């Protein structure tokens, strides 16, 4: 068994640096009398940039006997988290919201600590390290949310905290059975041990069913998927958009990644129609279909922009689950691509909505009507992000959707017993088409007529930089997706779907 | 081992029922604590009865104790702040599913 002396701590340098930097930021804030908001933001941004450079320079390898593994999959998700946190820092830099600007001494260190936890989670390959890093990612983020919410929103803060603990406890109960059945906390070892136990002991069905149900419920609660989505509705209405952007992109992404690690590795032996009633594939498909249908129907009904963003996150998580449950090389590849495309478009759209919220009273979708008449660049950027979220060809969103449905249909074709994948993919295609027409209609209304609000929207250079970079990446990955597809193919390789 | 696991399953079910049925923050926190006890007993049971090459259950239980008690502490603090703002327990009507 490896000891701490054997531990290759150099591989953990980006995460350790972020955690140390966050403590330093707290210490520095005691000495900087003015508690300068911009100083804290720039210091946090510098820390994140150094961490990104360290991530790009770090070697591949395992740490302390496969507790953490630094491979291309970890690199992929680490970059998503770090870049998302950097963009959040840039957006927070320009904020005038008193909830953020008055509490800078805590906000930025918590953001860095949460990012460090997410990066550790990207490397975790052991149930204990998954649990610890999941908590390291969640706790600072929840603390950030609690201190951002005002006094009137205390019930939301309590609800968020309790839901977070409840979901963690549900996941832990499932983990404890996985550990008991396999005799190991290592995810790869677990894959082998549980497959063997499954062959020799046919009477473990009840335990597996209990384990699968608690794990699915816990992860659904963390990703606020229906029917456990009620607690997050108010959160999306009250939280400042920079923090919401970080929550809806980086956090949901790493939760989806840890979900796929636990299910694809740990419960590999219990996928497929012959495993009924313990087949987690059907249960997760049911969850994905529920998320896609509920989200799409709610989006079509709702008028509020923030509620629309909330259900959009649910729909996108449903699409990602569809690709994970396909359980083939293309499924995990398109899941990675989809998470990048969605994060880019979501961050971009939230940035535009944030800048509009600052200058005018923006509450409903109809307030976006005629946006082009008084703010051409914002209308163009928001149009592009909405079209990518809707899945227009030549944007990254289209490539992601195409990959997801292709993976689902190819899995369905392998055996007649997988007919439910046809149903799931059919529901996905139908809802994607509805969403496409919905977003096209919003974009049409933005470019048609004139806005009632004539106040001009001033864009700061920081905003312009964020919007230009995200828009350029959305278009680039839409027109030339090969580089990102090759990179995300490594995810399939690390899960063992490509044999060298 | 069957009896231990049945006991923890019952304990966990009581906790889940408490979280879903109770409407006060403290009631939910106490229910979560019951669920945590079930998980810890589960891990120790697996270490005690199964011959694992690496008995990590005890270490894991310690991690859970430390991290989750810290989380529960924050939850209690948030609930206390809320209660001191509203000045009355009757205002509490938490439902984690809605």
The SS-based structural class of chain A is: mainly alpha
Largest beta-sheet characterization of chain A = 2 strands, antiparallel
**Unreliable residue runs of chain A:** none
Q: Would you identify the CATH architecture of chain B? A: Orthogonal Bundle
Description:
- The complex is a heterodimer of chains A (500) and B (98).
- Chain A has 500 residues and is mainly alpha-helical.
- In chain A, helix 1 runs antiparallel to helix 2 and helix 2 packs antiparallel against helix 3.
- In chain A, strand 1 and strand 2 form a beta hairpin.
- In chain A, strands 1-2 form a two-stranded antiparallel sheet.
- The two termini of chain A are 29 Å apart.
- Chain A has a domain of 230 residues.
- Chain B has 98 residues and is mainly α.
- Chain B has one domain: Helix Hairpins.
- Chain B contains 3 helices and no strands.
- In chain B, helix 1 packs antiparallel against helix 2 and helix 2 runs antiparallel to helix 3.
- Chains A and B meet through helix 6 and helix 7 of A and helix 1, helix 2 and helix 3 of B.
Give the secondary structure arrangement, pairings included.
The complex is a heterodimer of chains A (500) and B (98).
Chain A: H1 13-31, H2 37-57, E1 61-63, E2 68-70, H3 72-93, H4 98-101, H5 104-123, H6 127-148, H7 154-182, H8 187-200, H9 205-222, H10 230-238, H11 241-266, H12 280-301, H13 305-325, H14 329-359, H15 371-374, H16 376-390, H17 396-414, H18 419-447, H19 461-479, H20 482-494
Antiparallel strand pairs in A: 1-2
Helix pairs in contact in A: 1-2, 1-5, 2-3, 2-5, 3-5, 3-11, 3-14, 5-6, 5-11, 6-7, 6-11, 7-8, 7-9, 7-10, 8-11, 9-12, 10-13, 11-13, 11-14, 12-13, 12-18, 13-14, 13-17, 14-16, 14-17, 14-19, 14-20, 16-18, 16-19, 17-18, 17-19
Chain B: H1 2-21, H2 25-49, H3 57-86
Helix pairs in contact in B: 1-2, 2-3
